[in-house]
Design a protein that fits this description.
Blueprint lengths: L4 H16 L4 H9 L3 H13 L3 E5 L2 E4 L2 E8 L5 H15 L4 H21 L4 E8 L3 E8 L4 H9 L4 H10 L13 H8 L2 E6 L2 E4 L3 H6 L6 H6 L4 E8 L6 H8 E2 L3 E2 L1 E5 H5 L7 H8 L7 E5 L8 H14 L4 E5 L3 H12 L2
Parallel strand pairs: 11-12, 12-13
Antiparallel strand pairs: 1-2, 3-4, 4-5, 5-8, 6-7, 6-8, 9-10
């Protein structure tokens, strides 16, 4: 049976996406399209010949990326003007759909504006890494550093406290001019979002897994080792995401941005929460929201004191704040129920 041109293009797009996601491209393509390994390797050879990918070793391929760099003096910059002049033409060369260009417009203008207004950096840099599957974008500066800026403004005890507040949203160091929504929604809508500063990072994604996909001499690695702040964003060229869908997850027409979701694993790492002080730091600013979703994915257990402070004491102090639990294992659910029902 002959394969149509449309089917061949689908297979090539699938291969490019799987390589971009660092997955086992050969076996997944065989399974998805019910074709032989020999056929898959023929497609891989065609993509190598066209310059879309290159072979790192047998069975392991990487996307060929084109790097475009911009440097700006931070004087009277306007992020929307820069996007239309420098960024949008590059996106249009890739024949991206309007929803993808709209996402990039939102993400770039929000993050570049942060650099303009908050970084205290004399220069701002932007780098794009463009492939046939996806685009990486770096926005970086040599300023005070995002986590340090938040820590100093709110007088938090540590940079980690500042990072953890970013997960909640509605956090800004300029309340008169900003709502604190930019990083929250941008980090949710991108395929990969990482803010790096002061040798620490904020992300909803698996940052270390991403680093493993790069070589030590990869240009992305070099640019990530930067003073100030580095914002790394990635989005698939054929993404079907819509900005409105992400906003609707955390907003309603009457109250705007009224719900947040906190990945507990990202907040606490491998040290499961046990103390009342950890709970108090966690529920700081919960009262800014109508609903707080706690995502316990990959968290094995929580301590009794932490649980009582969060689910009994805070619930009593702020009964109007609804706390919902997702992805909790049975041990965590049992602990919460036991503490709630203890008289």
């Amino acid at each position: 049976m002959s394969i149509t041109e449309n089917k061949r293009n689908q297979i090539k797009e699938y291969i490019l996406d799987k390589i971009g996601d660092n997955e086992d491209v050969v076996q997944k393509t065989c399974t998805c399209f019910r074709i032989s390994e020999t056929t898959v390797y023929r497609y891989l050879d065609e993509l190598i010949q066209s310059g879309a990918i290159k072979r790192r070793r047998r069975g392991k391929y990487i996307l060929v990326e084109r790097q475009i760099d911009f440097t700006y003096d931070n004087i009277d910059l306007e992020e929307d003007v820069i996007f239309l002049k420098d960024i949008k033409p590059i996106l249009e060369e890739q024949k991206l759909s309007s929803n993808v260009i709209n996402i990039w417009y939102y993400a770039f203008t929000e993050m570049f504006n942060n650099a303009i207004e908050h970084s205290e950096s004399q220069k701002i840099f932007c780098s794009l890494f463009v492939s046939q599957s996806s685009i990486h974008m770096l926005i970086r500066d040599n300023g005070i550093g995002i986590f340090n800026k938040i820590k100093e403004y709110y007088s938090y005890e540590s940079l980690d406290d500042a990072i953890n507040e970013l997960f909640k949203g509605k956090l800004t160091t300029d309340n008169k001019n900003h709502t604190g929504e930019g990083i929250f929604f941008t980090s949710r809508i991108m395929d990969l979002f990482v803010a790096v500063s002061s040798n620490k990072h904020f992300t909803h994604n698996n940052y270390y897994e991403f680093l493993e996909t790069l070589d030590d001499d990869d240009e992305l690695i070099k640019l990530m080792n930067n003073v100030g702040t580095v914002i790394l964003m990635k989005l698939a060229n054929r993404s079907h995401k819509q900005i409105k869908e992400v906003f609707d997850m955390f907003s309603d027409n009457d109250n705007g941005f009224n719900k947040t979701s906190i990945p507990m694993k990202n907040v606490f790492g491998n040290n499961f929460p046990v103390s009342r002080s950890q709970a108090r730091r966690l529920y700081n600013r919960f009262d800014r929201f109508d609903e707080v979703e706690l995502d316990f994915l990959d968290v094995d257990e929580i301590g009794q004191a932490f649980t009582h402070e969060l689910f009994v004491k805070f619930a009593h102090l702020k009964p109007d704040v609804k706390i919902t639990i997702v992805n909790a294992n049975q041990d965590i659910l049992n602990m919460i129920n036991r503490v709630k029902n203890t008289k």
